[in-house]
Amino acid sequence: MTSIRENAQRVLSYLAAQRNRMVKGAEIAERLGLEPDAVNDAVGVLIDGGLATQETSFGTQPFDFSVVQITSRGRLEADEA
């Protein structure tokens, strides 16, 4: 089983590759082969660390957000990884 930290790093790397594009949870789950709960946890860690921002809306279940986007701090972290 992959740790939340490892999933967060994978999601951060994926977001960095998307430049400034807003990305849906379903896309992240599909591209990285993660379950929705794992995506939610990883994105939560990135948000808490200031590495990503999110927009929320109704009807995004099973995801806790509608879209997520990397921040400047996130790009710096991804570059240093």
* Domain module tally: 1
Largest sheet: 3 strands, antiparallel
The helix/strand class is alpha+beta
Distance between the termini: 22 Å
Mean pLDDT: 96
| Overall CATH architecture | Orthogonal Bundle
Uncertain segments = none
How many alpha or pi helices?
4
Strand order, sheet with most strands? 1-3-2
Strand content is 5-15%
> Considering DSSP H and I runs of 4 or more, what fraction of the residues is helical?
40-55%
Global outline = globular
CATH topology: Arc Repressor Mutant, subunit A
Beta-strand segment tally: 3
Provide the CATH top-level class. Answer: Mainly Alpha
Walk me through the structure.
It is globular, with a radius of gyration of 11 Å. It contains 4 helices and 3 strands, in the order H-E-H-H-E-E-H. The protein has a 3-stranded antiparallel beta sheet with strand order 1-3-2. It is of the alpha+beta class and about 80 residues long. The protein has a single domain (about 5-75), classed as Orthogonal Bundle (Arc Repressor Mutant, subunit A). About 55% of the residues lie in helices and about 10% in strands. Helix 1 packs across helix 3 and helix 2 crosses helix 3. It has helices at about 5-15, 25-30, 35-50, 70-80; strands spanning about 25, 50-55, 65-70. The model has no long low-confidence stretch (mean pLDDT about 95).
